[in-house]
Amino acid sequence: MSLLELRNLRVTYRSERGDVPAVRGVDLTIERGQTVGLAGESGCGKSTIAGAVLRLLPKDTLVEGSVLLDGEDVYAMKPGQLRAVRWSGAAIVFQGALHSLNPVRRIGGQIEEALLLHAVDLGLDRGQARRRVGELLERVGLRADRARSYPHQLSGGQRQRVLIAMALACEPDLLIADEPTTALDVMVQAQVLALLAELQLDRGLALLFITHDLSVLNSTCERLVVMYAGRVVEEGPSRELFADPRHPYGRALAQAFPTIGDPASRMHPSGLPGDPPDPAALPPGCPFHPRCDVAVDECSTVDVSLRDVSAGRRAACVHVEVTT
Amino acid sequence: MSDLLRWSDVHVTFPNGSRSGVVRAVDGVDLTVAAGEVLALVGESGCGKTTLIRSVLGLEPVASGSIDFDGEVVTGNRRALRSLRRQVQMIFQDPTGALNPRQTIYEAVAEGIRIHGVAGREVDLVAEALSRAGLRPAERYMPRYPHEVSGGQRQRVLIAGAMVLAPRLLLADEPVASLDASIRGEILALMRSLVDDTGISIVAVTHDLGLAWNIADRIAVMYLGRIVEIGDAEAVLADPQHPYTKALLSVVPEADRLEQQILVGETPDPAAIPSGCRFHPRCPLVASGEAERLGILDRCLGVDPALVGTDPGRAVACHQTVTRGVRHHA
Questions:
Q1: Residues 43-82 of B with CB under 8 A from A
Q2: B259 Cβ under 8 Å from any chain A Cβ
Q3: Residue-level pLDDT at A215
Q4: ipTM above 0.90, yes or no
């Protein structure tokens, strides 16, 4: 049984201006201990998926399809069961560590809160929970006495570590990291990525890593999934996909950050013209066609679904030959 | 190429609130920017790179040293600063925060024209600046508000607002750090084309070495208020010499070819700059025992290394480089 399975997930936000389809039929599977990178630009629906997995979306949001965590439908769970799954089944590390922590509480207390919510399941009393906070902080490379610090006393990288410690508190099987390094400096980003890789190895943690930076995902994940306008447009093993993307959007993302030393990108930044489409008013046909440099007439009318490229690789583009 | 801008032994300090302490944000920088070049100023948060570019516009208190623009000293020279504020424009990391949400794009670009009394018909100037920044047709963008356009377009509005004043220098503080990866290249291409077409100079502050590879002629690497390595962008990126530059390059996600040198800890505090080489507490040469083997450890711990020339246009502040026997930087 897969650890996480999304089956034809569709998420529609209700707004005053009408319904906004943010996720439009996504299938995604993560096995135990596997690392999957989810890439795409602002508004493509990648963070909505993170929220959908743990039912963290606004109340009136329409969620269709199914989310199975360890075989159980998250949307059929009773409140008590859902609470047990959050933190201990899957936990999320959000972007913007500064804003996710309570500024007027010591960080130790904030980590302890998650532990105490699950104290019965974990078999912890208060004293044990407190000691566990120290262990968790050391686990993410901070001193145990940092528990007494307030968020403002820590740097951005340290706060991000606190959020990771908090997410690990109840020993989840799946960690969802939504842009965990975006606001961080390169060196601190490298520290956080190394920490995530280590945790994944030591604990067999499965990781769903969400960011717009494909090069970061390539260096951390086994599989990559590229989203555009609420759908998966390309997926496959990281190295293969990154080295030879088959969807023009995958290609644009792979080239967005240059390979230093590559003469082709020297004095020649590579970008994608145009802007991400408005989810409330998607272009007809393939939603990518207005920005695509290899679009043909057919692209403005037909939206092709994912096609097999090779074993374990799929792309949704008319230029991928249909195999029979 | 002649020098457009020159920092000479510039120090910027702030009181840090304690009894006697000062924060040495910029701690003795000598640096020039040539006309028509893109200089990437690279370093981690807190290294003083933003303070250094803000000092040009008189936005930071220069404690000692001087800055001259086009051959004229501007530090403490109010008249020169006034004229500088048209000739030197700045763009920021967060275009959303830099635009007034209640002002249309037309107003945002026209504001500078009015303040500086730029000659010409306002609507024509705005239209030309918007199209130059890639917002075409300009008429369609003029009546819109910032929230009605994308993040990449907002950055283009800011660039249009800067370019409408026909500046000679653009100071760009992390110009693409908050933009989507797919948009990044387009904005960088625009910046490079402004330099190639109009001959302005750009100083781009960034922690993204890929940006430097994409658009910069030269790179200056900054650490704790000081330039530690400088040179032609290709030369520095192909063959970094300062251990800090090497470490920064090794952690670029695509740099599979290098063994990662992840420095521990955060950038140290500019209120307590280490003695000797300011990089020594994090230096891999010191940590690995290499510095001791080379017989330079005493100097790493006790002597602040000067920036010395290695090749024409190239200079490094590291005792290891000095031991290779090189001449002083002209």
A1: 44-45
A2: no
A3: 87
A4: no
